Amino acid sequence: ELISGLRSKLQTLWEERELILSEARECAERGEELEAMVQDVCKPNEFERYMMFIGDLEKVVSLLLCLSSRLARVQNAMRRIDGNTDAEEKQSLNERHKLLSRQREDAKDLKENLDRRERVVSGILAKYLTDRQLQDYRRFVQDKTSLLIEQKDLEEQIKFFEEQLETLEKSIP
Fold first, then answer.
1. What string of DSSP letters covers 7-56?
2. What is the pLDDT of residues 100-128, one digit of tens each?
3. pLDDT at residue 43 greater than cutoff 90
4. pLDDT digits (tens, 9 = 90+) for 144-165
């Protein structure tokens, strides 16, 4: 029953992933349309700023999500530390925790910088785009970020349930 339940949950998660990937493709198409429009109306240096921001948006959000996920796994491992855990493993977990915490703080700084750049890009686009087009741009940025977060969350859940299923299947003779 447990194996069947895990397989069912995985099937649901795989279907959700397909939906999100479809939404991501639609978002990418809107992004391409927006990019063409921005290129048509902006000066070359302004367009370059826009493109750098959009490229960095995905990188910074992905970095933050990755670091947060890795930090959460280390914190979970640290909670499982008990009297039987050797000192070397405890030290290793503490060092990884410190390193990942520092890296996540650095990534948060990058995100704050990215937010400032977004305001600059938004100001540039406000000179050229209609209110509706500007809303479309902002919705695109928001959707792109949301989809990245949803994708990462789903991948983590799928990985977790696949590991659970594999462990369970190996434990049954």
1. HHHHHHHHHHHHHHHHHHHHHHHHHHHHHHHHHHHS-HHHHHHHHHHHHH
2. 999 999 999 999 999 999 999 999 999 99
3. yes
4. 999 999 999 999 899 989 999 9
Q: Whole domain around residue 57: which residue ranges?
A: 1-171
| 67 contact partners, CB below 8 Å, separation of at least 6 | 100, 103, 104, 107
Other beta carbons within 10 angstroms of residue 35's beta carbon come to: 15
Residue 19: is it exposed, middle or buried by C-beta count within 10 angstroms (0-12/13-18/19+)? exposed
pTM to 2 decimal places: 0.82
> Which pair of tokens denotes residue 95?
């060092």
Q: Report residue 134 as tokens.
A: 């500007």
Question: How many domains does the structure of the chain reveal?
Answer: 1
